[in-house]
Amino acid sequence: MNLNEFDALSFDCYGTLIDWETGMTVVLRRWADEHGVAMTDEELLNAYASHEATGEAAHPADLYPDILARAMRDLGHQLAVPVSDAEARALADSVPDWPAFDDSAAALARLASHYHLIILSNVDRASFARSNDRLGVTFTSIITAQDVGSYKPSPRNFEALDEERRRLGIGAGRLLHVAQSLFHDHVPAQAAGLPTAWINRRHATPGWGATPAPSIAVTPNWTFTSMAAFADACDLAST
């Protein structure tokens, strides 16, 4: 396969385009310091990760802010640290404040000249709309967990993506899925028959951070350490 063989790119958003770990850490760090929790930022993210994934699997119809609030309360229960309604709500309401990675907007603008751009995100429409403002690009299609009624890594989300591919008239094999999370994206995308490109944002940081480890071994078709590097490769393939 060559990167110029694709007509469309589907993207995970949070972790790939938007720096969700930095955004969440602001809230988690404030809560931990307020209650004297002696954990590093990375330890907080690792402890949090399973609670969000569990909540998404158990409550697939809940909006993402409610998933965040529940996960925060569950983290507090695990650590035997109180979480007030205001503290849970602070995480739930923080998504619009999560920053874009520095290279996301420019890379997307370059990629839009070669491909249709599709979002497949574990989020609600309202939260994504605020994040989209930070990305500065008009996506061909936006598919959220709210639209599908489930969260990745559910196969339903990738079935919805395939339906959108067909609606847009994009041929089989002409869509590449681009994402950071092996757990949420690469394992189910490849199970659905999609080639994948890994934006390995955590290449310089050991561990999985706010994302659970993948359930099975998976090998992305391409690996890049940034969206800028991915856009460079796509530009080169198109010359």
Describe what you observe in this structure.
With 239 residues, the chain is α/β, with parallel strands linked by helices. It folds into two domains: 3-19 and 99-237, Rossmann fold (3-Layer(aba) Sandwich), CATH 3.40.50.1000; 20-97, DNA polymerase, domain 1. 48% of the residues lie in helices and 11% in strands. It has helices at residues 20-34, 41-58, 64-79, 85-92, 104-111, 125-135, 145-148, 155-168, 182-191, 227-237; strands at 8-11, 116-121, 141-144, 175-179, 196-199, 222-224. Strands 3-2-1-4-5-6 form a six-stranded parallel sheet, with helices on both faces. Helix 3 crosses helix 4 and helix 5 packs parallel to helix 10 (227-237).
Task: Please supply descriptive tags for the structure shown above.
Rossmann fold; 239 residues; DNA polymerase, domain 1; alpha/beta; 10 helices; 6-stranded parallel β-sheet; 6 strands; 2 domains; 11% strand
